[in-house]
User: Fold this.
Amino acid sequence: EAGVAQSPRYKIIEKRQSVAFWCNPISGHATLYWYQQILGQGPKLLIQFQNNGVVDDSQLPKDRFSAERLKGVDSTLKIQPAKLEDSAVYLCASSLNRGTGELFFGEGSRLTVL
Amino acid sequence: TQLLEQSPQFLSIQEGENLTVYCNSSSVFSSLQWYRQEPGEGPVLLVTVVTGGEVKKLKRLTFQFGDARKDSSLHITAAQPGDTGLYLCASHGSSNTGKLIFGQGTTLQVKP
Assistant:
């Protein structure tokens, strides 16, 4: 079974530029999550989708971050304009259903903002 | 919002030593998960504990859930260099959204 796919693996941009990350979850997984992980820290949830609807985006900086999950499958996370403090790894995860189940993570997209 | 406190934040030990990592909350956990993350990869689930007082073993790793379901520990016996990584506890808390909240993690380095 294929895992969670993310791209790009690495991205370097200058502040005020824009960037987009793509995630393809495990087939059949209804719930998709985007987390931000600063080096050496635990992941922080940015947004959670159930199919193509947003369940929780309370910690998403909506003035610069946006995310969508068209057709309830793939998802894109965009940052525009980027700030220095956005340098982090952006992890996508999926689970069969929301609740108490296991989350399956992709390898992450490492963003460096100069 | 439930907060998960992990300790210690960083641990550097020699191969063969034992260690314990702790995860605490002021709120009751509905369930608790432990993940391990290696550099350049996403976290991978090690175990889920649900019942107060529960003990689960995974080879040299022993996971314990507190009786009151407000704390958990991970004990590693005879640590090996392959155990090196970031250990994260996580909980769905009391939210009905399925939102999974992580602790800040414990970075473990096992030197040969």
About this structure: Chain B has no helices and eleven strands. Chain B touches chain A through 28 residues (CB under 8 Å). The two ends of chain B are 40 Å apart (CA to CA).
